[in-house]
Amino acid sequence: GFITCWCKSSPLPSPRKGTPDKVKLPLPQSLAGKAFVAFVLGAASVLGFAPFYFFPLPIVTLALLLCLWNQLERRLAAFLVGFAFGLGLFGFGTSWVYVSLHDFGAMPVLLAGIATLLFCAILALYPALAGLFLAPIKTSPLPKQLLVFPALWVLLEWIRSWLFTGFPWLAVGYSQVPLSPLAGYAPLLGVFGVSFFCALSAGLLSLMIGMHALRKRCLILLIALWLAGFGLKQIEWTQPSGSALEVSLLQGNIPQEIKWREDQLVNTLETYRRLVDESTGQLIILPETAFPLFYHHVPKIYLEKFTAHAKKTGGDILIGLPERTDNNHYYNSVLSFGSSPTQIYRKLHLVPFGEFIPLRPVFGWLLDVLQIPLLDFSRGSPEQQPLKVAGQQVAVNICYEDAFGEEVISQLPQATLLANFSNDAWFGKSMAPMQHLQISQMRALETGRYMLRATNTGVTAVINPRGEVLSLLPLFTTATLEHEVRGYAGATPYVLWGNYAVLLLCTLVITANFMRSRRLLSQAR
Is 86 exposed, middle or buried (0-12, 13-18, 19+ CB in 10 A)? Predict the structure, then answer.
């Protein structure tokens, strides 16, 4: 509200005598030069995310991107500069897609490279569209950079999170967890709310860079914005519920290249049997597809031993297992064994080209060309409830389901704990496992719940309700992580209203600016 009033009522202050109102940055004059700078800025933004955590950097790069856009008048030029920024961001930030396709998917080098480049180019269209829509707006730099840009950036991030099943990876809000004061906005407005305040900070910074006359005001507003975020971080949105619980998170470290080989089956089962026998937790969690077997193929005596062990501690074991039903439906599932009756969670948000082929009549030929023996998994029900195990209600999410905050909160506020079951071995020794960990940190912060991550090769970790990693296992080690946690009750504002609040904010900003522009145009005529 303060920003809106400032934009509407305050004329730009006159510059002091001898001081130019606008500052010219030493940026290239040619479009090719600007595109190259934008590409470097996008690539540098990756350092703001895990595993580097230089959280101010994406805000600086966004501010400089705005400065580049401010020097352009043609829509196509702004589109190309935004595309170059996106190509740098996703080309470096999601380069691990190549590892999945080539190293573990057996796709030929050239084909894997082309597929990865095409994937990154599609994602780069979103920053490109931000430039395309922002360029023609002829208005004061205050509403354009402090209102329209943040709203436009967030709306495009949100669209990217669901269009074609969605890929919200590297939304700028994730870079702020857990260190930045802006992370304080997460329990209020979720990751897209944090993205909004990142973009708003970038807008303020770009005005400070580009206009002498506005520096003091922008600095005051920037400090106020970050102080408010710091204040929000001090609020305890949820409360501990019930007694403490000892959990054991198992990391089997089964290499992806041998995981599905028949001659390695006994070794896999023996590894997890040993880890379970050594575990002391009331709640024991094994990762996604821990056994390379369908549930009904797992030896009964094996599961009976697990059940007996869990009953001995008065708790339960959760195991990630593929499941085939009588009507030949396949599910990526989590099943419970132990003191409570057996319960099942079936994965809802499937990975396209990984767990199912979208438009199979169109793309099915790829399986024959690449010789990939992929059967379509079925989606679990959207109405699934938390699993009642070890005296807790656990909201389960499998693999990258935890990247979709609004789907995670569908099991809240009933759930007292969050648990993510993943197999990030597909990403090899890349940035992806740590980026995935940071996404889980955001979910913990948004919901005010502990997040328990059990993964095949890492990162297996315990995250507290403030989004802080309390304990984790080194990557590519066979080990058990044991830690004491608490169930939490209550609801953060984000749990209550999801993404609706930030989307409403962005829509109102865009609509108000459109109406204002039309009114000014009408007056000019």
Answer: buried
Q: DSSP of 140-200, one letter per residue?
A: -HHHIIIIIHHHHHHHHHHHHTTGGG---TT-GGGGGTTTSGGGGGHHHHHHHHHHHHHHH
Place of tokens 């066979």: 478
Average pLDDT rounded to a whole number, residues 191-219: 92
Residue 399 falls in the annotated catalytic set: yes
Q: Which helix (H) or strand (E) holds 488?
A: strand 479-489
Work out the pLDDT band at 139, boundaries 50, 70, 90.
low
Q: Is the dihedral of CA 143, 144, 150, 151 positive or negative?
A: positive
Query: Which of 7, 67, 399, 506 is labelled catalytic?
Result: 399
Q: Are strands 283-285 and 316-324 parallel, antiparallel or unpaired?
A: parallel
| Res 371: pLDDT | 46
Residue 43: partners with Cβ closer than 8 Å, 6 or more residues away: 88, 89, 91, 92
> Bridge partners of 336?
318
H helices of 51-139, where?
Answer: 57-70, 75-93, 96-98, 109-134
* Cα–Cα distance measured from residue 301 to residue 479, given in angstroms and rounded to the nearest whole number: 24
Residue 91: count of CB within 10 angstroms of its CB:
20
Q: Please give the angle made by the CA atoms of 447, 450 and 453, to the nearest 5 degrees.
A: 115
For residue 82, the cross-strand partners are none
Strand 316-324 with 330-338, pairing: antiparallel
Other beta carbons within 10 Å of 326: 6
Angle formed by the axes of helices 215-233 and 186-210, to 10°? 160
pTM for the full predicted model:
0.93
What pLDDT does 375 receive? 61
Output DSSP code: residue 356: B
Tokens linked to 132 = 């395309």
Rounded-to-integer distance, Cα 225 and Cα 223, Å = 5
9 Cβ neighbours under 8 A, 6+ residues apart = none
The residue written with tokens 């910074």 in the block is: 205
Would you state the pLDDT for residue 135? 83
Question: In sequence order, which ranges of 379-473 are alpha helices (DSSP H)?
Answer: 405-408, 432-447
Sign of CA dihedral 272, 275, 281, 285: negative
In the set 157, 288, 323, 355, the catalytic residue is 288
Q: Are 383 and 338 in contact (CB under 8 A)?
A: no
Catalytic-labelled residue, pool 347, 355, 446, 506: 347
The token pair that represents 4 in the structure block: 């809106």
355 is catalytic: no
